[in-house]
Design goal:
Elements lengths: L18 H16 L11 H6 L34 H14 L4 H28 L14 H13 L4 H5 L4 H19 L13 H17 L6 H13 L4 H10 L7 H5 L2 H23 L19 H20 L24 H20 L3 H15 L21 H22 L4 H25 L3 H7 L8 H13 L3 H14 L4 H13 L3 H14 L4 H13 L3 H14 L4 H13 L3 H14 L4 H13 L3 H14 L4 H13 L3 H14 L4 H14 L2 H14 L6 H16 L4
Helix pairs in contact: 1-4, 1-5, 1-17, 4-5, 4-7, 5-16, 7-8, 7-9, 8-12, 9-12, 9-15, 13-14, 14-15, 15-16, 18-19, 19-20, 20-21, 21-22, 21-23, 22-23, 23-24, 23-25, 24-25, 25-26, 25-27, 26-27, 27-28, 27-29, 28-29, 29-30, 30-31, 31-32, 32-33
InterPro entries: O-mannosyl-transferase_TMTC (IPR052346), TMTC_DUF1736 (IPR013618), TPR-like_helical_dom_sf (IPR011990), TPR_rpt (IPR019734)
GO cellular component, one term: endoplasmic reticulum
EC number: 2.4.1.109
């Protein structure tokens, strides 16, 4: 099973380190690359997978993570993404519990530590794939290629394409999947640790443990099942020492009879059967868990998969592969999203980009021919296993077996990059061995490459620290990507720069004329700026393109209400509710419409529906209290206000409204208590000081009334009615101070 010392290893321009020193060195390199992302924000997909994911909160039953997808939606829902990663979500939940809430530092630190651990473990993986499997008397892996495996692990630890997986918190799925992938492979190797006794002996228990770790990898990310392919290739090529080229010649030419007795004696078929059955069971379980079938992706997500011409579809898939290969070779142009025009489709065989496809396959065919036909056994095995580690983990993302929801995703290259790094380290060793007189130049080149990798990682992980820097960095990489412009605009709008946001939203719509989310957000901003006619046009177009876009229907209703198109507004609100049954904000806005139309009972019913769907909907509770107060239903207003404060005990707006009601009911002491409590929460509320002053005025506590009138006028000199009330109080106080004749 074990190979002799790898002949090119001593030519590698690195010192030979002890196993622990090598792993510490690699881990430190990984930390150096990504440490500056430790205090970053929640960015991009973190919002949905973490910030808005109820499965992270301690109040949510723990069992929910086993029935919901990665984003917190029920797997049985047609809108579910079907990404089933409960173990990853469980680590997010642990982060939440340990930090006492959504504090991103803990999330980022764990990601960085995981990458450092994975990078260090890669030394053992590379040592086996390059130098063969052998153990010392203590059961530790013997490394026959210490320098090559160290160099490959350093390349892996510092490769910039990993930035999305490490600096983006949702990349935790890739990290955990890679960790269990490694453990499954190393555990599978453990099954042969008694190789010094008899070659036909292996441990079924370790094979079963390897399958369980594969299942764990799959519960972190679907890509984890590909470790079975790597294990099988390792078994065939290293354990059973099968020469694939010779085997294929015998099968095709049939000149020499195929002797399978040796393979049968070594138990290969038994192990392959165990892995095959285990893999089929995992796939079956995964399919059953998905419930309603695979997720439904749109043409925007993956345009090549919707091409009617099969030839062009295959051409574009291969073009995507070449772009992924380029990201591994030259990871300088990195982008958080490669959809929506970032990679235009190849629509003709005369497109100049066809050159990249030809180049990719020329390189692959060259590598495969060397891997199969080389007379050098060590080179043959290293290249073959390097290609296996490069290609097999990428298979779930290749669009061959099923449609994926992206064009290019840097995160899916996390495991595949290990194969690339192995091949790159082998190339360095081969060059140093062949051109020994240029050894110093090669040494400088390797050092320079590692420095460039570290610098690029540091720069890219810094860009991932905030959405502003992440989104703007993509403008130079994918200037024709509508989604990039949309996200830049959204970030600007969130920071209050609506003028700049409008320009980016308009550009997103120009680049992608059916981009309904950009239309919706642009319509919202125009609504706030009182540009209602254009806002109505945009929102109407959005719902005509996507009739089930509930948020756009609601926003259209708000605009139509402002334009006093009350019937159209009511219909738009009901359309929104039809497409999204549980829509508390829409019920709230529908209630406002009914209140404007003096349909008070309908308004109260709408707001009550909002609070049933969302018990902490403060605005709906408050509006019910105010409406009942204004219509003279003070007793009912009091009941609603008290009910609301049981659910929202620190909501100062509801306290304020309830205090007003209690004042009118002449429950002065209770009213005073709620006013004072509201002021402790929000001491600068001029209206609260003013109404408390009115309460004291009625109550006869004139000095306290004077104090709060003055505080109210200090905070808001233009407060309506307050100055008149204050002047009235001063006249009364003056009268009281005059001596009686």
């Amino acid at each position: 099973m074990a190979l002799s010392e790898v002949y090119w290893d001593h030519h590698i321009p690195l010192p030979k380190l002890a196993p622990v020193q090598a792993k510490v060195t690699v881990a430190l390199g990984a930390l150096l690359c990504f440490i500056n992302s430790y205090d970053g924000e929640f960015v991009f997909d973190d919002s949905e997978a973490i910030v808005n994911n109820k499965d992270l909160k301690p109040t949510t039953p723990l069992n929910n993570i086993w029935s919901n997808d990665f984003w917190g939606s029920n797997l049985s829902s047609n809108s579910s993404h079907k990404s089933y990663r409960p173990l990853t979500v469980l680590t997010f939940r642990l982060n939440y519990l340990l930090a006492g809430g959504l504090h991103p530092v803990g999330f980022h630190v764990l990601n960085i530590i995981l990458h450092a651990v994975i990078s260090a473990l890669m030394i053992d993986v590379f040592a086996i794939l390059i130098g063969g499997l052998a153990y010392d008397v203590k059961g530790r892996i013997l490394n026959h290629a210490p320098k090559t495996s160290l160099l490959a692990a350093l390349f892996f630890a510092t490769h910039p394409v990993h930035t999305e997986s490490v600096a983006g918190i949702v990349g935790r799925a890739d990290l955990l999947c890679a960790l269990f992938f490694q453990l499954s492979f190393l555990t599978y190797c453990k099954a042969f640790s008694r190789g010094s006794e008899r070659d036909d002996r292996f441990s079924v228990q370790w094979v079963v443990v390897s399958l369980l770790l594969c299942a764990a990898a799959m519960l972190c990310k679907e890509q984890g099942i590909t470790v079975l392919g790597v294990n099988a290739a390792f078994d065939v090529l290293l354990i059973c020492n099968v020469n694939v080229y010779e085997l294929s010649q015998r099968l095709l030419l049939r000149k020499i009879p195929l002797d399978v007795s040796e393979i049968l004696r070594m138990g290969l078929l038994t192990r392959l059967a165990l892995m095959g059955l285990g893999g089929l069971f995992m796939l079956y379980a995964r399919w059953r868990i998905m419930g309603t079938g695979p997720p439904a992706f749109t043409e925007v997500d993956n345009p090549a998969s919707f091409a009617e011409n099969i030839f062009l579809r295959m051409v574009n898939y291969n073009y995507y592969y070449s772009l992924n290969a380029w990201l591994l070779l030259c990871p300088w142009w990195l982008c958080f999203d490669w959809s929506m025009g970032c990679v235009p489709l190849i629509k003709s065989a005369t497109d100049w980009r066809m050159v990249w496809l030809l180049l990719l396959w020329c390189v692959l065919i060259g590598l495969i021919s060397q891997a199969l036909c080389s007379q050098d056994r060590q080179r043959r095995r290293t290249l073959t296993l390097g290609l296996v580690l490069l290609v097999v983990p990428f298979l779930p993302a290749c669009n061959i077996f099923f449609r994926v929801g992206f064009v290019i995703a840097e995160r899916v290259l996390y495991l595949s990059s290990a194969g690339y790094c192995l091949l790159l380290a082998y190339s360095v060793g081969h060059c140093c061995c062949r051109w020994s007189k240029y050894r110093k130049l090669l040494c400088v080149s390797v050092l320079a490459l590692l420095c460039v990798f570290v610098a690029r990682c540091a720069l890219r992980s810094h860009q991932w620290r905030s959405e502003q820097s992440l989104f703007t960095s993509a403008l130079s990489v994918c200037p024709f990507n509508a989604k990039v412009h949309y996200n830049v605009g959204k970030n600007l709008a969130d920071r209050g720069n609506s003028t700049a946001a409008i320009a980016y939203y308009r550009e997103a719509v120009r680049l992608h004329p059916t981009y309904v989310h950009a239309m919706n957000n642009l319509g919202n901003i125009l609504k706030e700026r009182n540009e209602l006619i254009e806002a109505e046009q945009l929102l109407s177009k959005a719902v005509s393109i996507q009739p089930d876009f509930a948020a756009a229907w609601m926003n259209l209703g708000i605009v139509q209400n402002s334009l006093q198109k009350f019937e159209e507004a009511e219909q738009s609100y009901w359309n929104a509710i039809r497409f999204r049954k549980k829509y508390p904000d829409c019920y709230y806005n529908l209630g406002r419409l009914y209140a404007d139309l003096n349909r008070h009972v309908d308004a109260l019913n709408a707001w009550r529906n909002a609070t049933v769907l969302k018990p902490d909907h403060s605005l709906a509770w408050n509006n019910m209290v105010i409406l009942l107060d204004n219509t003279g239903n003070l007793g009912q207003a009091e009941l609603i206000g008290r009910e609301a404060l049981k659910l929202l005990p620190n909501d100062h707006t509801i306290m304020f409204s309830l205090a007003n009601v209690l004042g009118k009911l002449q429950k002065y002491k209770e009213s005073e208590g709620f006013f004072l409590h509201a002021l402790r929460i929000n001491p600068n509320a001029a209206s609260c000081h003013g109404n408390l002053a009115v309460l004291y005025h009625r109550w006869g506590k004139l000095e306290l009334a004077k104090k709060h009138y003055e505080l109210s006028l200090k905070l808001d000199p233009e407060a309506p009615g307050t100055r008149d009330n204050y002047n009235m109080l001063r006249r009364k106080l003056d009268q009281l101070k005059r001596p009686t004749p």
